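In keeping with the milestone schedule agreed at the kick-off meeting, the structural modelling team has produced records for the first pair of proteins. Each record is given below as a sequence line and a structure-token line. The laboratory manager (R.T.) confirmed that both were archived under the project's standard naming scheme.
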Amino acid sequence: MLRPLLAAAVVVCLTGGSAQAARCGGDFDSFVASMAQEAQAAGVSTGVTNAALGGVTQDAAVLAFDRRQRYTFKKSFEQYVSTRVGPGRINGGRAMLQRHAALLSRIEQQFGVPRHILVAIWGLESDFGKGDTGKLPVVRTLATLAHDCRRTDLFQGELLAALKIVQRGDLPLRDLIGAYAGEIGQTQFLPSSYIKYGVDFDGDGHVDLRHSVPDVLASTANLLHTNGFKMGQPYDEGTPNFEAMREWNRAVVYRKTIGYFADRLAGQ
């Protein structure tokens, strides 16, 4: 599945200047050492880089999965939506709308993104936090993908962003667990999205997209709001809101599925 910003190849900037990119390919340990130096230049402490990158190894399964990603959205909308939005998931989404009604009202008021869109995304990405959000160490995953020369600039940026998440105390290293492209949490943010759009909506001083439902839903709303999503406007294909969702996922089929699911949750 394509994730937020994954196909856009947006690299997060952690410092005001530009660091020399580490050279992809070649000896993996030398590459990791270069990334550690780059992270420290970007303000990540030696303690964090040593803990995160010390002894890290490549993951062949991650590379194999990355090679298969291009075929994810070859299905038609009708074929795809039939596998993702069924009665069980719709009923689950309606239950979440009731359970979190007060929270969703606050998020709508602050960010101007309708609750049905947020719950649809939440359901598609992780079955409302109950499904598979990944079991892989994010640093190892991203170091593997960054070392590979196919999209090294993208994943070098994501690796630096992941280290920044640990540096600022949002998640401890042991809890920095994600999916096959380093996506984290209940709505599967890439680390750069985590840094750019993450919101501490429960007020505990940390942006926790793995365990905090308020943080998860508010951060998802913040991403859409920042990219121009407007409350009360249509979100079907060809509209500005549909384009705003492109920052979430570039695939037209996936964005249409979000809209379809949201409509079902709203009883349409």
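The second protein of the pair:
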Amino acid sequence: MLSTGALRAHLLAARLAGPVATSREESLRSYRLFAARDPRVTLGLDPEWGWGERDLLRLMADKCGVSDDPRYVSGPDAIDPERTLAGLDAFAARLGAVASHRGAVLLGTGHPHRLLGFYAALADALSAAGCPVLTPAQGSSVDITTRFGVRTYNLDYVRGVALVREPGARGAGGEPGAHTHSPLPVRVALGVAAGGSGRVPDLVIGDHGWVCGAGQLGIEAVGLADTDDPALFVGEAEGRVSVAVPLDDAVRSDYYRPLTRYVLNRACLSQ
């Protein structure tokens, strides 16, 4: 079993926590956009409270450990590894709880290049524990607004994990899927699940719009979030996201494997 100390050391060495690749400029830009209710960063969440830039900076300092000094405007941002560890413990507790009553789960990612393996291992473990791993609306089309205009993507599942692909991209060069922040894929999936053709999940696990979109619809959701993803932490503060784990969500995919082992051990789901 991976010890807390060993995982803390790994978080810092892999730059999953401590000084991270996400810049202060990127984080502050996201806080400004969120305060303006820009859908590119609200990720499907409709905040109940008024969140100004200073409010968001204080929240992110509390949730992630970033500097709360508004005069710090450039350079690397930082995540407190103790907050990451606490988040992983809470994340594991929710997985353990849903597994204990064999609840249905839906997993989805907007970061398939980096996080597909992490979620797929969770899907395997939850399935082995008797949890239905749902795959609603597979093959459905989703129109997502991007910086290049509205693009049509297809909802797909890989090893039980939802993602979106550009039409015709399946298998091309090993392409794992497209990066997206949109909540539309989870809305499509949940709409089909609630329409009588499937089962509504007891827990949604993922990142970006998968977490915020599900939480906004009243489905329990847990996930991973970087310092420039304030929506998940706002959702947690307002009670619509159960757990938001602060970490860099765009490092090498193999760097997440120790986190997988740690979470599964904590959730009593190791195979």
